[in-house]
Write a structure and sequence with these properties.
The protein has 126 residues and is α/β, with parallel strands linked by helices. It has 5 helices and 5 strands; from the N terminus they run βαβαβαβαβα. Helix 3 links the parallel strand 3 and strand 4.
């Protein structure tokens, strides 16, 4: 079974980059540009990993992580949080919300794929 990754990113260029990288590595990808649609898409798509931008319009990525971790059908899915605003304490706050992985933007290809693969491997081992 091919692994599925849900990419929640409002920036068109970043979303395209993430999706293209993941597809080039053999993953099935579902893009989501509006966080307000995230839960509905996640329930339908059933991803093995979620790549979550933290700074989204209309709703915070932190709020989405907390909502996902509070949902019995979604809480088991690991989250890689990506953010351009990597200030002191941000990583801890994001991990406390429930994200298993964290990268600051700009994201380099190798660390991004290593982080996604680590979450996929960890899930497969569980």
């Amino acid at each position: 079974m091919t692994e599925r990754v849900l990419v929640v990113e409002d920036n068109d260029l970043n979303r395209k980059l993430f999706c293209d990288l993941l597809r080039a590595n053999g993953l099935v990808v579902e893009p989501c540009s509006d966080g307000r649609e995230f839960i509905e898409i996640a329930l339908r798509f059933d991803p093995q990993v979620v790549v979550m931008d933290i700074q989204l319009p209309h709703v915070s990525g932190l709020s989405l992580i907390e909502a996902m971790k509070g949902n019995d059908l979604l809480r088991h899915i690991p989250i890689l949080a990506v953010t351009a605003y990597a200030g002191k304490g941000d990583e801890e706050r994001i991990r406390d919300a429930g994200a298993e992985g964290y990268l600051s933007k700009p994201v380099s290809i190798q660390p991004f794929m290593a982080a996604v693969n680590a979450l996929l491997d960890r899930r497969a081992a569980a």
